[in-house]
Amino acid sequence: MALDHRPSSKANDWDRRGLPAWTYDNEALHALEVSDIFLTHWQIVGHVSDVAAPGSYMTFDIGKERAVIVRDQDGTLRAFHNLCRHRGSRVVAGERGQCKNALVCPFHGWVYNLDGTLRGAAQPNSYPSLDKHEFGLRSVELEVWLGFIFIRFKPGQQGSVAQYLAPYTQEMALYQPESMVPAGPVWSAELPVNWKSVRDVDNEGYHVAMAHPALQDLYGFTYHDLFYDNDLRVSKGTYKPGAGRLWSVRNYVKLSQGQDSLPAERHTLWAYYGLFPNSVFITTPETVQFYQELPIDANRSLVRGITYRYPTESRRQRLARYLSQRIDRATYAEDTQLSIWSNESMKSLAFENFYLSDHERFVRAHHDQLRQLLPVVTLDQPPAATDMKRINDGLKKTN
Ligand code: FES
Ligand SMILES: [Fe+2]
């Protein structure tokens, strides 16, 4: 159910503070965030077209976990821990690749079928007989939603991806993303900030008017948020014919063209679909994209994303897409700077806390979810590293 997106002008009835500064700079908390949030919540890793042929694979690492997603001989997508059952080597290296009909461990050469079962050890007569299931690759939960591949390392509270993202399914299905193809490789960048500083900037549109001249020029004052009762949030901006003072925006608006199958209002709309804890889908008339930030440690994050396009993209759509990428690149650089400034401010003597606008309620909503999952973040001061987990578990029981 979509909730009212118009913040009350007199809404002084909510706590406008964010999480305490220590939560952005604490390795013990980072470890808890990975184990209790990132491993227990669905992560987008890519799209069915990224692993289209039998034997094609991609990898996805987070925290100390690493996964390989592979399409088997029957066309089924499978996810496994990228960890050899002999001595733990990565079974495949790199971010993506193509194997013939088996995964061969680069350490000693154990061979795995694409369904994860062990085909055979190197020099098998040096072992007692090995059961192909018992020594097969360990599975990781995988689900495909509208063509996007999600994995989850540990069970969690989100249910299935289809259930969790049900409020988005109808709108995003209009773009037929399952039949799209990559418009280019995955891009990624390491940022010198805690992942929450990236998300805090991304979780509100209050800064668009000031910090993003191109976005403001494109959809300016039409930008608005919609909240859903399961803590999902959509932001939308619409542009008008003839809009655009900036060269890239003006020409984008001129050329922008959705597929005929899109309803009329979607031909001039950019929409952002947020997913807890760390990802966003973007739909434009020409593309569907996703991006996400993954914590490396308490002070470093990996931001990655990719754009998908229609397989029958017209020349005009391609040109529009190039122009929208120029707008995106500028926006990304601006957001990066803002997340760095926000993050470094928390290490200053002068920093007290946020004082959020009604237009930043989703920053608060995101923090509230973190408070619920990791109640230790409600403490004003950090517990000692060795006590972090125990105190968090204790607070969970009393909540
Ligand atoms: S670690 Fe994979 S074969 Fe030895
Ligand atoms: Fe931004």
In short:
With 399 residues, the chain is an alpha+beta fold.
How would you describe the shape? globular
Largest sheet: 9 strands, antiparallel
SSE order, as H and E?
A: EHEEEEEEEEEEHHEEHHHEEHEEEEHHH
- Strand element count: 19
**How much beta, percentage-wise?**
15-25%
Structural class: alpha+beta
Annotation field: number of helices = 10
CA(first)-CA(last) distance: 27 Å
Q: What helical percentage do the residues reach?
A: 25-40%
What structural keywords apply?
9-stranded antiparallel beta sheet, alpha+beta, binds FE2/S2 (inorganic) cluster, 25% strand, 10 helices, globular, 399 residues, binds fe (ii) ion, 4-stranded antiparallel beta sheet, disordered N terminus
Structure, explained:
- The chain is 27% helix and 25% strand.
- The protein has 399 residues and is α+β, with helices and mostly antiparallel strands.
- Strands 1, 12, 13, 14, 15, 16, 17, 18 and 19 form a nine-stranded antiparallel beta sheet that branches.
- The chain is globular.
- Bound molecules: FE2/S2 (inorganic) cluster (FES) and fe (ii) ion.
- The site of fe (ii) ion has 4 residues, from loops.
Task: Give the secondary structure arrangement, pairings included.
Elements: E1 2-3, H1 27-38, E2 43-47, E3 56-62, E4 65-71, E5 77-81, E6 96-98, E7 102-104, E8 111-113, E9 118-120, E10 141-145, E11 148-152, H2 161-164, H3 166-173, E12 181-182, E13 187-191, H4 195-202, H5 208-211, H6 213-219, E14 224-228, E15 233-238, H7 247-255, E16 269-275, E17 279-283, E18 287-297, E19 300-309, H8 315-345, H9 361-373, H10 388-398
Antiparallel strand pairs: 1-14, 2-11, 3-4, 3-6, 4-5, 7-8, 8-9, 10-11, 12-19, 13-19, 14-15, 15-16, 16-17, 17-18, 18-19
The structure holds FE2/S2 (inorganic) cluster and fe (ii) ion.
FE2/S2 (inorganic) cluster (FES) binds next to loops.
